[in-house]
Amino acid sequence: DAGVTQSPTHLIKTRGQQVTLRCSPKSGHDTVSWYQQALGQGPQFIFQYYEEEERQRGNFPDRFSGHQFPNYSSELNVNALLLGDSALYLCASSLGDLEAFFGQGTRLTVV
Amino acid sequence: KNEVEQSPQNLTAQEGEFITINCSYSVGISALHWLQQHPGGGIVSLFMLSSGKKKHGRLIATINIQEKHSSLHITASHPRDSAVYICAVIYDSNYQLIWGAGTKLIIKP
Predict the structure, then answer these.
(1) How far B76 CA lies from chain A's nearest CA (Å)?
(2) How confident is the model at residue B2 (pLDDT cuts 50, 70, 90)?
(3) B42 interface with A at CB cutoff 8 Å
(4) d(CA A34, CA A82)
């Protein structure tokens, strides 16, 4: 079992561009959550997907959107990138509310 | 005020010492996680607790639901244990993990 895999691992984008980050959950997991971790800070909840729908959302603008596919994999899209969007983006998967497993993250740098 | 409070914020110890990291939270929870984050960012789930005590190798996690408090212990600490340890909870009415600020642990050889 590969666990939770995220791609890409690192990414550099220009301000104003759009980015898509991908997450494949651990085998058997149906719930995917996304977090943003700015340098030196704790992770902030972006949103959670379950049964292909956004179940809960944190305090992030509409520029942040997501999707969950029938195979439970998920994408995080960020439009109109700002310098402040530079962060580590973490994906976590779980089976319902059971133990969450995390990917290694995608390091996004906006220049 | 953070809903999940960890202490200490920073901890430096010598190899072999017994380590304790504490976590307090404010309202009823359905589960509490202890997580480990190494430099570079990857997060590893160590334990998920809803009651009692769990042990995995040199790591022990306990939770007291009545006192709304959990502890993570590391026995016979080793430099490779150096990392940030994070306590995160899921409240009864919430799906998301609420994170503590983390404890930065450095174990010196």
Answers:
(1) 26
(2) low
(3) yes
(4) 18
User: Left if phi > 0, otherwise alpha if psi is -120 to 50, otherwise beta: which for A56?
Assistant: beta
b/e per residue B54-67 (b: at least 16 CB within 10 A): eeeeebbbbbeeee
Size of chain A in residues: 111
Phi first, then psi, for residue B81 (nearest 5°) are -80, -10
Residue A60, phi then psi, degrees to nearest 5: -125, 145
Written as six digits, the tokens of A5 are: 């895999």
Beta-carbon pairs below 8 A across chains A and B: 54
Rounded Cα gap, residues B54 and B72, in angstroms: 10
In tens, the pLDDT along A21-62 reads 999 999 989 999 999 988 877 788 899 999 999 988 988 999
